[in-house]
TrEMBL record:
InterPro entries linked to this entry: Cytidine_deaminase-like
SUPFAM superfamilies in the record: Cytidine deaminase-like
Lineage top rank: taxon: Bacteria
Name the record gives this protein: Cytidine deaminase
Length: 112
């Protein structure tokens, strides 16, 4: 697999993250895949008393559903790099790769 070619499962989580972002009209969409292959999608939360990135919400959903590790994560955003907090929360559940993608689905980078 090269930097521009993704496997079907990795493409799927980017597609799910894009769909969540578009559906909710938010700045970010995310999807994570756990060790059993289950996927969790989320968007960022921007409330007066609670601000979470889409990755933070997706990882929290996975953890609260019993996931013990992640295989992969995808973040769709206009940002050029994932934030330190996003990388930290993905690493909290193992050594998963984080795919960063543009709103059109173009892969911007892979992070570990």
């Amino acid at each position: 697999m090269t930097d521009t070619i993704l496997g079907a499962e990795d493409s799927k989580i980017i597609t799910l993250a894009r769909a969540a972002r578009a559906r909710n009209g938010t700045a970010q969409g995310a999807a994570v895949r756990d060790e059993t292959g289950r996927t969790y999608t989320a968007t960022n939360v921007d409330l007066p008393s609670l601000r979470l990135s889409a990755i933070q919400v997706a990882v929290a959903m996975a953890a609260s559903s019993g996931a013990v590790s992640l295989e992969a994560a995808a973040l769709v955003t206009d940002e050029e790099e994932p934030g330190d907090q996003d990388m930290a929360v993905v690493q909290d559940l193992g050594d998963a790769i984080l795919f960063l993608a543009a709103p059109d689905g173009a892969l911007k980078g892979r992070y570990r």
